[in-house]
Amino acid sequence: MSRVSIVKVAGRNRAQVAAGVRQAIELAGGMADLIRPGMTVMIKPNMVAPPPSADSGACTSPLVCQAVADAVKDLGARPIIAESSARGADTEAAYRIMGYEELRRQGYEVIDLKQDKTVQVKLAGGHVLTEITTFELVTQMDAIISVPILKTHDQGQVTLALKNLKGLVVDGDKRRIHQLGMFEGAVDLVGHFKPVFAVVDAILGQEGMGPLLGIPVEMGLVLAGRDLVAVDAIGGRIMGFAPDEVPITRVAAERGLGTLDESRIQVVGERVEAVRRRFVRCEEDDRIDSEGIKVIHSEGTCTGCRNGLLSSLFDMQAAGTLERARGTTVIAGPTPFPEGIPQEMLVSVGSCSLPEAKRLLRYVRGCPPNNVDIIRALLADEGEAK
Ligand code: SF4
Fold this sequence. Notes:
- The longest helix is centred in the last third of the chain and has 17 residues.
- About 55% of the residues are buried.
- By secondary structure, the chain is an alpha/beta fold.
- It is globular.
């Protein structure tokens, strides 16, 4: 039987978050048998990219990481908070917006993995990855704790404790995982890195166009457990997703990395039914479609282009220029041409676009492309699009 705790947090100040995290860890069985004195333990938040604000629900709260770090210290181990944001995204900027600088001032170690040395390692038993490039620090850890935030995701339905491990590889491998198959690739990483525990920041999550530009949702919860598949199954269920509807949870369960069978998961603390709230799914968030712009991704389109494109569209919306792009269809990454759309109404973004897409007048190169170039292309300023 796997155990997952759900705890209500009284509020969002440091003491309230610390109390909630501590209770969630204890109810889930504690970490004393996993974290021993002298160990070095990585606390891995989700810092996908610099978020629009600290309250957007895109990135893990520093207060949650701080509370997990304190729990690790209490067991005599050394906690290190470490992350590398999505391909092309600035981890330090994400830390700054979220307030991680304050943790550094208080003496906590907060590391941008993108600035670390890289190391190639073989993956025994990987289904799509046989070798990855990770960071030296990651290879020196005695244990990894995944500390994601509760949110929806444009490819994986949700992103929780399992998918969070993707930040442990270099940008080039993040792209490769998207191209080889994100769900299998992410589960290969879980099988390799073997995180020992998960604490989910479900205090302020995000619905709709996650993982970066969705709509914030106040849930006031923390989840914890040592079976990451079970944690993701229950986290997804709270958002209104059946566990087998979420590809990464399903693939991880099929590979024996944990259980998604709710009859074999003991939920302690709050009941799922008491805290459940159906999250708007990514495809139901029509804030951009309703403006008359169609965005098409394929499985090979990775977070860099997805985020850059959406944030460009939101910038245009804020600037009142989106109307000028009405009727445009944007294809991102290696996405085939949609049928029946005149070429002059198409914009293609990303250096990995297919050859025919690169011949379009409005093709934006870059990996990922700059937002300013995407906006120029959308405004049909063809001369500067490339
Ligand atoms: S061009 Fe875009 S989709 Fe292609 S690899 Fe780069 S960031 Fe990813």
